Amino acid sequence: QVQLVESGGGLVQAGGSLRLSCAASGRTFSSYAMGWFRQAPGKEREFVAAISKSGARTYYADSVKGRFTISRDNAKNTVSLQMNSLKPEDTAVYYCAADRKYSDYVSPETVEYDYWGQGTQVTVSS
Question: Can you tell me the distance from the alpha carbon of 27 to that of 41, in angstroms, rounded to the nearest whole number?
Answer without folding.
Answer: 34
